[in-house]
Amino acid sequence: MSDNNQPAGQINIELDEKTAEGIYSNLAIINHSASEFVLDFVCIMPGTPKAKVKSRIVLTPQHAKRLLKAMGENIHRFESAHGEIKDTEQPPIPLNFGPTGQA
Fold first, then answer.
1. N or C: which end of the chain has fewer CB within 10 A?
2. 95, 98, 79, 31: which is closest to 59 by C-alpha?
3. pTM
4. What is residue 28's three-state secondary structure?
5. Exposed/middle/buried for 89, CB within 10 Å: 0-12, 13-18, 19+?
């Protein structure tokens, strides 16, 4: 046991109220370099010519791969409980804004 009465190897993760509210995103833009993956989360509204990145997450390639695996497992569990998630056709969004995938 450590000084704060937690078993060794256990991490105490805190979630403040503002972060717990989350940020809605309906578009993710993913770029990468040799050393990192950058995930930009955007909320784009129909008929609005401009949108802002609401959140950016920077991951190592190893963590990006772990995230992909974890998302796949969670989607599988969700679909097992609630049925297949339908992938609807979306109109193309011009993605000629923002930085390219270079660091």
1. N
2. 31
3. 0.73
4. strand
5. exposed
42: β partners: 27, 53
The set of long-range contacts for 54-58, using a CB threshold of 8 Å and a minimum separation of 24, is: 54/23, 54/24, 54/25, 55/23, 55/25
Over residues 54-77, the pLDDT tens digits come to: 999 999 999 999 999 999 999 999
Q: Do 77 and 98 form a contact (C-beta atoms < 8 A)?
A: no
Residue among 33, 31, 29 at smallest CA distance from 42? 29
Query: Which CA distances in Å does 66 have to 17, 24, 28, 69?
Result: 27, 23, 18, 5
